[in-house]
Amino acid sequence: MRYGFAKAYAKVNLTLDVLGLRDDGYHDLRMVMQSVSLHDSVSVRIGCGEDVATVSNVRHIPNDDRNIVIKATRAFLDATGIDCGGVYIAVEKRIPSSAGMAGGSADGAAVLRLLNELTEAGLSDEKLCEIGVGVGADIPFCLMGGTSLAEARGEVLTPLSPLAGCIFVIAKPGKGMSTKNVFAAIDSEPVSVRPDTDGMINAVRLGNIAAVSEKLCNVFEPVVTRQAPEILRIKEALCENGALSAVMTGSGSAVFGIFEDGTRALSAKNELSKKYDEVFVARPVDADKVRNCTEIFER
Length: 299
Known about the structure:
Largest sheet: 8 strands, mixed
Structural class: alpha+beta
Distance between the termini: 5 Å
Mean pLDDT: 96
Oligomer: single chain
Number of strands: 12
CATH architecture of the largest domain: 2-Layer Sandwich
Low-confidence stretches: none
């Protein structure tokens, strides 16, 4: 029996722009995405039965075919034609749900990478991304990781200079957001403020954390804060406690602030933890670390 473990890294959006609705019903996006050290832990065991099964430490996540790790597993097996004698997946969740941090997609990406190694299928990263995008648009980024410009549905990736020299404090209010509902809301009204994505790319290239902080922008934020005004209070609290700037990530509802000083970041985390249950300190993670996140064992 073979089994393996992987870290499934969360992401944050330094910028997020919605360019318009596509003919296929999806949206064209342009955004700068960053892997962060906050992660779930995923284990996969093959040769343990006749079907695909999963379990996690979070009750509200379904353990049936609605679960993205099962979808990713079935997509991998269909694409490769491999019969590995059953797959058992265990996920220890740390990434908050309905937060805009790609927690489910990160888990799905980790499963694809583990299955590729466990079955010795030898698929390229490009092929894994091709399989993954059919399961979730964020899975290609979660497979490739690091700092990237993401376009189209989010699956067209251009690697950028690794972001370093900063710390993130991430806080999620009690209310999560439905990505589907947020996209529907933004379709119903014009976007008033768009991110300077090219300016963000240049700030990242220069390693200028102050400029990165100034360019943080998410077009979803005005829409989501009307439904979840606590987001604005979290942004204010982060800045009052030393963040250079703060912004909502993805379709919400998590918010992150950028810090240059670890002591101030930890102090801010402790202060926000007095009011919010899900508060984390994280660092940027580069692409090599994301792509080399697995350990394989034989029993």
